[in-house]
Amino acid sequence: MLRRTLATLGALVLAGALALAAWPQLLGLQRGPVAALVVSFRGAEGLVALIAAVVLTLVDFVLHRLRRGIGVVALLLVAFAVAEGGVLVVRGIGAPDVPTAQQDDLTVLSWNTLGDSVSAQEIARVAAENRATVVALPETTADRARQVAGLLAGQGLRYTVFTVSQQAGIPARSTSVLVGAALGRYRRVASLGDTAGVPSVVLDPAGGQNAPRIVAVHTTAPYEPDPVHWRADLAWAAARCSGRNVLVAGDFNATLDHLDGLGTGGGQLRTCRDGALATRNAGVGTWPTSLPALVGTPIDHVLATPNWRFTGFRVLADEDSSGSDHRPVLARLRPAR
What we know:
alpha+beta; Deoxyribonuclease I, Chain A; 2 domains; seven-stranded mixed sheet; elongated
């Protein structure tokens, strides 16, 4: 009797733990210690749980005395794997077609280059091939960004370069942005503060033109036992989405789960909507490139206020050998009518 009671309690505890791992938002834990990391890799966790369930089922044929307990654990793991896979499918595991840009469209390329590990030639090639209007480059130094702009200028594509660096000599502590000439003149806004451990950039139109505010985001990763600085960075990014005409792009070190609760619903950061979710690509991982895209974590985003409509989004998995541990993401936006 005692053994059965303990087994039942153990099964209930495991079921509760797996439920929270699959949806920590149930208790508002998505940005809390441990849970923030656990919910980051839905694809990998679902795959591991499924493999574990298969192994336990095979063991079940050998250890007959434990058959009931093993069977319950295996069923719970299968349910967890199905839940994780279901979330990814609902968010989208690939609708990568990006339509040809029309006259008023904007194309945003965001790429964490791992501290200048990606060559200027490679960045310029991807930007030129996709006719990027805005190129957000976390972990890219001013020198590398100017090299990219120079290469693009040689192809007749003009960009203004902005860079913020928090510590000289450490490329990872820089963030650069290239703004296409079609958007007009821009100026950096320093009065709105910055993210804590790695820099972000806020740019406003300087000539009175009806162009969007551009925010290139790079947040601290949630590796601390209690990631307070990461949460503060996400709150800072959310505050930037308080205007009527805003584009936000970069490495958030956060999935849609982590952003939940910072806006009015999943996939929103205050008034900004996530481009990957809008186009059914939000389950495709952008980090690390050493893992398949559906096993990695989607932490690189392009978001925009409702005056923009996402017509396409793509995780550029064909750039995995470029030198960065992040995949670039490409979004095409059209003014909402």
